[in-house]
Specification:
This protein folds into two domains: 200 residues, Response regulator (Rossmann fold); 129 residues, 3-Layer(aba) Sandwich (Rossmann fold). The protein is globular. The strands form four sheets. It has a seven-stranded mixed sheet with strand order 9-8-10-11-12-16-17, sandwiched between helices. It has a five-stranded parallel sheet with strand order 2-1-3-4-7, with helices on both faces. Helix 6 packs across helix 7 and helix 12 packs across helix 13. By secondary structure, it is an alpha/beta fold. The chain has 13 helices and 17 strands. Keywords: Signal.
Length: 388
Amino acid sequence: MRKKLLAAAMSTLLMAGALAGCGGGAKEDANVIKIGGNFELTGGVANYGKQAVNGIQLAIKQANDAGGVMGKQIKLVLADNKSEAAEATNAITKLITQDKVVAVFGPATSSNTLATVQVSQDNKVPVITPTGTNEKITVDNGKTRPYAFRSCFIDPLQGTIMANFASNTLKAKTAVIYIDSSSDYSKGLSQSFEALFTQNGGKVLGKEAFLQKDQDFKSTLTKIKALNPDVIYLPAYYEEVGKILKQAREMGITAPFLGGDGWDDPKVVEIAGVAPLNNTFFSNHYSSQDTDPVVVKFIEAYKKEYNQEPSALAALGYDAGLLLIDALKRANSTDPAKIREALEQTKNLQLSTGTVTIDANHNPIKSAVVIEMKDGKQMFKEKVTPKL
């Protein structure tokens, strides 16, 4: 009898402990707003994901230090998509169905983001990519995806900027386009560049392609060299860009290379070397040389937090964080539908890369810049403000 009583007592204590544990978890959940982060933390473009996450975490830290939102602390739940589209789909599915996040940041690349947007639409949970620039992320067959947003400008703007830069600033009459055929991002930029460059009176002498992870580009570069273009448009990511520029300069190709924001990573200098990057230019979202007080304040805060200067990807991650935090405050709710409505109504919001208004296609209307690489450093070249 004594053993039965002891067993019953122990059972009651264990149950009480379990209930207390459940109660603690529920209390914690009640005091936090869980936001997902679906990013490339490992794999081929891990640097992009890590930089974007740094920016997001800084925005969240500042908001939490200031008291949070609705009296709650924001918690970032990260999932590594390993720089692969299939893993990105798995990651967002887990974040929404298991972690029960109310919104998702990421991924960083267009291809990986495109692999996730249908999941966000099906589950009616907003997704904000800081750096996915492909048009189809927010618009599908002419219709705006209700739950898809971004804090970066879109590919056509980048291609347009560099086509005008080639024609007007560099006075180029001929070009060769060299794309990563495995990348939606690369294809999108090349299409808009070609359309405007030819409209400006320029001639595209040839189009060549490579695949991500390729190592030897000399065969294709030999063809490009023979065409002798005024400029070479290379809309790709930093790893391949670095290798192509290194090999091109070794082969005696001296023409200017132009690109997009995928160039923006310190590793491009490590891979290519300092000299091969001279006489190259790329479109970007902001410049660290901007003297705007808002930009300066962000750079100082980022340096204090991470002991390094922020890249454009870090700035866009920070902007994505500010965009969502502002929407949460105005929605005064963690209901994903209300967060979506607040995101759509964003107008004249001051972010690190400029003042932003979200347009009907869920894209931000804001300025862009052209960066020149000189002696291994990024130099501000031009600023472009879109017409409203």
